Each structure stands twice: as C-alpha cells, then as structure tokens.
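mind reviewing this fold:
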Amino acid sequence: MRNIKNSEIFWKPISPTTSKMQEYSAIRQAAFDANMQLPKLGLVLFTFGNVSVADHALKVFAIKPSGVPYEDLSPEKMVIVDFEGKTVDGNLNPSSDTKTHAVLYKHWPEVGGIVHTHSTYGTAWAQSLRDIPIYGTTHADHNTVNIPCAAPMDDEMITGNYEYETGFQIMNCLRQKKLDYKEVEMILVGSHAPFTWGKDGKKAVYNAAVLEEIARMAFLTEQINGNAATLKDSLIKKHFERKHGPDSYYGQ
C-alpha cells in the first residue's frame, strides 16, 4: 500500500466570497428588514430614503443600494461599506448618502443604525429651516428639547464632498446646540430632510416614524393656534423620565 504524501491531500477551501457573505449576513438581513419598514410606515415614496446597519467590531455597515425599488430588494443586495465610505462587498452601488452614514458611524461608536428619509412633514420643517418645537407630551416621551434643524451648508461644502460634509453638518449642529447624539437621536438637515439613528436598525426606524409624527402634530398645532405655547418644563421632565429615567415605570 502506497503512503500518501501531504502534498497529495486536497482540501476544499472556503472561498473568500462565501466567507465574506457569511460574515456580513447578519447586518445584511438587519438592513434589509429595516429598509422594508420604510414604505410600510409611509416614510418613503419610490426610492426616497435608506437605512444602514453597522457592525462596529468589523468597522463596516450594510446599506441599501442606490436607486433600487423597495420591492426589488433582498438581503443579498445590501451593500457592505467600511467607515471610510468604500465598498468592501456587494455588486451594486451603495446609496448616494453612504458617505454621510460612514462619517456618523466613524465618530459615533454607540450608533448601530441610521435612517434617512424625505418623509413629508419632517422634510417640510427642514425646508422651513426650523427646529420642531416641543409642543406636547408625545414629543416629550422621546426628547426633552426641540428637534434640531441644522443650518444649510456653506457653498464650499456643497460644491465639495457633499455627502461627506453632510455628516459633519449633522455633528456640528448637535455640538453647537450642546446636544448628545446618545440622547437626541433625530435631526433635520436644513433645506434637505430628516436623519435619525439608534442602537440598531429597528430603533433608528422607530425614531424616523416618531420624528414624522411629531412633525405632523407640530404642524397641525400651529395651524390651530399660531401662538401655541411650548410644553412646561415640569411636563417635559415627567413624561421623559417616566419612560427613560432611573425610576421609569412605562411598559413591562
């Protein structure tokens, strides 16, 4: 019986493509699931909007491909991008807003999901260049401050690396208003539209829906009473803390 040499033993290696697909499958699925919620919640028309989901250990995120209708999406079509905005896995072009997401993930380690929509009421407030005032307890259940509106970009930023600069536009607004991204998870980009974020894709989508409803309620409030007063500090504190404070008692 002939001895078999090591060189004669053939192992079937796992292909790099297969290995990468398995490594990124969780965030691809999460990004797909989150993106599919946008049309269901009435937050997008056609291909207006996107969701991304990040893996900070791998320093990558999965994001919707650019211009692909929601009904044509699948988990496999989600594009994997690194925190510099470069595609590392996927056959389609990522969302045109990819660099904005990349900037935020790179600077915000506790954010696991980001949503951008052009939802009607949120976008109307952004186009009006106004913060959304804290008029009622629905707003206070989620924020203790007005939802901020970032000032429009300088011309130099617009004609430069626009989507990349949008990330800094968002961060600079929060910094100027002394707001923490871990506490205020939504913003209007002036003359543009809303961005929201959260610990994961589900929370980011939830925040996008909440922002739109708060924007709608604030618009209607001003139609009914153009001199409506904002919520009293005591009510803001009570409603926020009963959900999020150390002695919260909302829910199970």
